[in-house]
Design brief:
D-Amino Acid Oxidase, Chain A, domain 2, single chain, alpha/beta, eight-stranded mixed β-sheet, binds flavin-adenine dinucleotide, globular, six-stranded mixed β-sheet, 377 residues, 27% helix, FAD/NAD(P)-binding domain
């Protein structure tokens, strides 16, 4: 499997010391969730060991679009309908606070540039407008843009700009979180796949593997649905065209231009939907071609593609993360299922699940209770 554009950036040497005694908590998965949780637990004085079948950020945390967005995986007006007005407002506000904390924690891995959510046709424009009005009504910052300038105006009738959002170099971001966890005393064991909970010694285990099937989650296994996302990176483009993350068609297509001028684009899962519910981390010709054709149309000329890669994220049917104690198992905890929206949510949920494991009250986690997936509504 190919590495992503992000993972090709040389990272710092992450050398952790073996724990001196038995681990209090072991975490499976060294992505954003695992590193965030590990740091919170270690800073509270626990002995924490993190295992990853690959390397720090080797999963979706180093392979994603690099969008750090506030909010949940659904539109805000939908969240108000589904969750209730107070819950939706609280959820969005919480993610905004964690986005600020993330910025403070990862330095230049995050650029606070905002993001642009585009409407691909008039129907989507009306949907987006409803979301914009709901956000403004509840006091969230958002800007309406209509009509749009070239090159967007040819294809998109309108857009909503989200000022609090950011662009991240996700591999650098996760490696920074790992470095912070190591500073707090965490041991990270790379290239070790945990095959069974029996091989772990800690009293409590956190499974932080999002869409990658760990094989450790018992009855929850499979309810966080492995879903493939594919991306491409182009040769550097000299003109600045997309200075912040852009996404359209209900988030199916997403792209941004990074500092060296390259355009990174992902999505088009709907070009071949049936094949993309998989944990196989491979690119496919149909989706790669759709991505290339899209960029030719958008930029107005063919661009050389320099990197192609895929990653797996965890989709949940109600678009809410799955975070907390695994029902019926006194030892096992889970945090994942961010439905393609995990850069901020993984950082946030990793911290919150760690607090809950420390015995603290975290009322916000009620919304994400894993038990909801097991009991019929
Ligand atoms: C192509 C793509 C684009 C995306 N774009 C965005 C975006 O722009 N913005 C956004 O917010 N979100 C995006 N996402 C989603 C986001 O990347 C993820 O939700 C987030 O990174 C999940 O982080 P994590 O730490 O929970 O899991 P991951 O980073 O996926 O880490 C899980 C780790 O668990 C390890 N693992 C699994 N099983 C075992 C085992 N048994 N033993 C040991 N290790 C194991 C894996 O090796 C992996 O490294 C995207 C995802 C993809 C795939």
């Amino acid at each position: 499997m190919a590495d992503s554009y992000w993972l090709e950036e040389p990272g710092p040497k992450l050398v952790s010391k073996p724990l001196s005694g038995r681990a209090d908590v072991e975490i499976v998965g060294a992505g954003t969730t695992g590193c965030s949780a590990a740091r919170t637990l270690a800073e509270a004085g626990l002995r924490v060991r993190v295992h990853d079948a690959r390397t720090v950020a080797g999963g979706a945390s180093g392979r994603n679009g690099g969008f750090a967005l506030r909010g949940g995986a659904m539109a805000y007006d939908r969240a108000r309908e589904w969750l209730g007005a107070e819950e939706a407002r609280g959820y969005w506000a919480l993610t905004e606070r964690y986005l600020e904390r993330l910025a403070g924690a990862v330095g230049d891995a995050l650029r606070p540039v905002g993001s642009l959510r585009l409407a691909a046709d008039e129907e989507e424009r009306d949907e987006l407008r409803r979301e914009y009005e709901a956000l403004r009504e509840d006091g969230f910052d958002a800007e309406w843009r209509e009509p749009l300038q070239a090159p967007l105006g040819r294809r998109f009738p309108a857009a909503m700009f989200h000022p609090p959002d950011a662009s991240v170099q996700p591999a650098r971001m996760t490696r920074r979180l790992a470095a912070r966890a190591i500073e707090a005393g965490v041991e990270i064991v790379e290239r070790h796949r945990v095959e069974s909970l029996d091989e772990l010694e800690a009293e409590r285990v956190l499974v932080a593997t999002d869409g990658y099937p760990s094989g450790l989650l018992g009855q929850l296994e499979g309810l966080i649905i492995p879903t493939r996302g594919q991306m491409i990176a182009t040769e550097p483009v000299p003109e600045p065209l997309f200075p912040y993350p852009h996404y359209g068609r209900h988030g199916f297509d997403y792209w941004q231009q990074v500092k060296d001028g390259r355009i990174l684009a992902g999505g088009f899962r709907d070009a071949d939907m049936t094949t993309e519910f998989t944990a196989e981390e491979q690119t496919t010709p149909t989706i790669q071609r759709a991505l290339e054709d899209f960029l030719v149309e958008l930029v107005g000329r063919p661009l050389e593609v320099t990197q192609r890669w895929a990653g797996i994220f965890g989709l949940v049917l109600d678009f809410l993360p799955v975070v907390g104690a695994v029902p019926g198992d006194g030892r096992l905890w889970v945090s994942g299922g961010y439905s393609g929206h995990g850069n901020v949510l993984a950082f946030m949920c990793g911290d919150m699940v760690a607090k809950a494991m420390l015995g603290k009250q975290v009322p916000e986690l009620q919304l994400f209770d894993p038990a909801r997936l097991l009991t019929p509504a």
